[in-house]
Specification:
Number of helices: 10
CATH class: Alpha Beta
CATH topology: Rossmann fold
Order of helices and strands: EHHHEEEHEHHEHEHEHEH
Helix content: 25-40%
CATH architecture: 3-Layer(aba) Sandwich
Number of strands: 9
Number of domains: 1
Structural class: alpha/beta
Largest sheet: 9 strands, mixed
Radius of gyration: 17 Å
């Protein structure tokens, strides 16, 4: 059963987990690192099934970053030259074949848009929960923002972008939308990490589509109430869809995958993105 609500809200993530509650602060990067230390959070992420992906339209690229390092991304160029970009950010597993496959799926439904799936782990892809936790905790705020800055330089001054991500990537979808300033025209967050800093939220140049799971222990009714408070103060709008499902329900390689909910959520995301890229 789907519940639709439209409110002036944005993610303000409060976990019921004691470890998280004691160690988090207003830095969303630190919060996610604290989550990764929680055995409950790690257990929440069953190992994804192996898929057999073969690239049809995309390929890996590298681009320079302000910290003098290079970053990786899976790039699916628009069929015709375009200044429209969809920035895709992976789950805590890394830029794996599932995310590359999702990038090509998005390309098929948005073929006048460049698709760029960022690699926030610098080539590391987790094969188990422990590695995923390690890579997530090992991502410094400075490196993450350098990757985002390098991406913005790569796509150029005339670019207009939307962002999309899941879980870890949902949070960084929001961060990328904030960091991209006037280039941002839309943001999609699947059950992802918020930013509680009202000053930062005020910098958003677009509304946000938030897709949630009602059975998700980490993003619950208490969290939503906090979303409303923060976003009302920031003066920003979030369009909310909530599904009777659990965390990671939209990932077809996850044991928690719920096909009907995932398909409906994808339809909502595509409709939102098509309107932004119109």
């Amino acid at each position: 059963m789907k519940h639709l609500g439209i409110a002036i809200i944005l993610f303000a993530y409060i976990s019921s987990n004691a470890v998280f509650a004691q160690s988090c602060c207003n830095n969303p990067n630190d919060k996610f690192a604290a989550l990764a230390k929680s055995s409950d959070f790690r257990t929440e992420h069953e190992l994804p099934a192996e898929i057999h992906f073969q690239a049809k339209y995309g390929h890996m690229i590298q681009f320079a970053c302000p910290d003098n390092l290079e970053a990786n991304a899976y790039f699916v160029p628009a069929k015709k030259k375009s200044d429209l970009w969809l920035i895709v950010i992976h789950e805590w597993w890394g830029l794996n074949d599932h995310i590359k496959e999702e990038a090509e799926k998005l390309y098929g439904d948005l073929d006048h848009v460049n698709i760029l799936a960022l690699d926030m782990y610098d080539g590391n892809v987790a094969e188990n929960r422990e590695e995923a936790s390690q890579y997530m905790q090992g991502l410094s705020k400075e490196r993450a923002y350098s990757i985002i800055s390098g991406m913005l330089n790569y796509i150029g001054n005339d670019a207009k972008l939307c962002t999309i991500g899941w879980c870890f990537g949902g949070g960084w979808s929001l961060q990328t939308a904030i960091e991209s300033g006037k280039k941002t025209i839309g943001c999609v967050m699947y059950y992802g990490m918020p930013d509680e800093d009202i000053t930062r939220l005020k910098k958003l140049n677009s509304d946000v589509l938030g897709i949630f799971a009602s059975q998700d222990e980490w993003i619950n009714a208490e969290v939503i109430a906090t979303f409303e408070t923060n976003m009302e103060e920031a003066g920003k709008t979030l369009i909310v869809y909530s599904y009777e499902a659990d965390h990671a329900f939209a990932n077809p390689s996850s044991p928690r995958y719920v096909e009907k909910a995932a398909q409906d959520a994808y339809k909502m995301a595509i409709e939102y993105l098509r309107l932004k890229f119109k």
